[in-house]
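Notes from hallway chat w/ T.B., transcribed later so I don't forget. T.B. wanted the structure written out for a chain they're using in a teaching module, and asked if we could keep both sequence and C-alpha cells in one place. Agreed to drop them here.
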Amino acid sequence: MSALDQISAEVEEVIDYDSTFVDLQQGDIVKGRVVRVSPDEILVDVGGKSEGVIPIKELSSQPIPNLREFIKEGEELELYVLREEDEDGQLTLSKRRVDQARGWVQATKDFEEENVIHARVTGVVKGGVIVDAYKLRGFVPASQLRTKGSHEDLVGQELPLKIIEVDQRRNKLILSHRQAVAAEKGKLRAEILQNLEVGQTVTGKVVRIADFGAFVDLGGIDGLLPISEISWQRIQHPSNVLNIGDEFTLKVLKVDRESHKISLSLKQLQEDPWATLAQRYHEGQLINGKVTKLASFGAFVEIEPGVEALLPTAEMADHQVKPEEVVEVGQEIQALIKRFRPDEKRISLSLRDLGSGGSGSDEDED
C-alpha cells in the first residue's frame, strides 16, 4: 500500500462520511435548494447522499403555464418525502403535498372563524366553477354564485368566498360566493351605520320607489326618503319627481342602529319657503292660490311653491257646507289671510270674510 492510500484509509477510519448525510424517511418534511429545472423533473439538494427529485406532477395541484417562472434554480423549498432513497440513493419529493397540508390547516381555520377569503376561478365544470384556494382545488356550486352571465366569463377572476364545507379526508372543499357577498355587505352596512350621524349630509342613489317614499342606497345600506321629505311642495307620488338611479345629496334625519333604519331628507337641503314668508304676507291680506287637497275639515291651498294654507270648512261660507260643495282640487281661488303663523308653518284662510259673493270661484268672478 502506498503512503497516500494509507493516509486515505486512516482518514476514513476517523471520519464517518455516512453520518454527514441527512437520514430521511417517507413522510418527513425537509428543506431543499433547487439545483436544476428540467421539463420532466426538478433536482433538489436536501443534504442527502444524492439529489432529490420532484416530479412535475408533485409541484402543484394547479396547471403550471410556465415552469421556469413558477420555480427557479437556487430557490429554497419545503418538501414532503414521498419515497425514501432508491437503489441509486435518490429521494422522491413533493412540494404539492406540503402546500396542500398547509392549505387544509388554513381552510379549516377560516371555516371555523367564518372568514371571507378571495380565490381565483381556474375553470368551469358541470354545476359550478373550480377555484384555486389555499393551493387546493375548491368547488363553488352554481347555486352559490352571485353573478350574471356565463360562468366562462368568471375564469381568471378573483371572487370573495366563504367556506361552507371542508373535509381533508375526502379532499372536499366547497365554497359560496353568495354568502361571502352577503357577509361583506353586512360588514359594510355595519361600518356605514356606525359612522352616520344625525344632521350629516350623504350621497345616495334611488334604488326603489314606493307609495310612502323612496329607498336610497348609501353605498351598502339603504335609507328611507319619506314622501314628506322629498320636497316642500305637496307631491302625489314619489315617482312624479324621482326616478330609479337618480343620485342626490341628502340630510340624515334619524339613525336607528338597533333596527338598522335610516331616515333621510331631500327638502331639508333646499331653501325653506316659509323662512321669508313674513316679508310678503300678513293677516288681512288677499291672496291667490290653488286648491291641492280636500279633507272633511277643509281644503289645502298652495299660495307659493312649498307653502300650503288651510281653508277651514267653517270659513268657506256663512252657512254649513261641505268642502266639495265650494271648491275642488286644482281650482284657483282668492281668499283672505285670517291667521298667519309662519314660525309654526300655519296659515288659515277665509272665503266667508271676503263678504257676500266673495267665494273667488270662476263663476262668481264672471
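Follow-up for T.B.: Residues 14-21, 356-366 have pLDDT under 50 and may be disordered. Might be a good example for the class.
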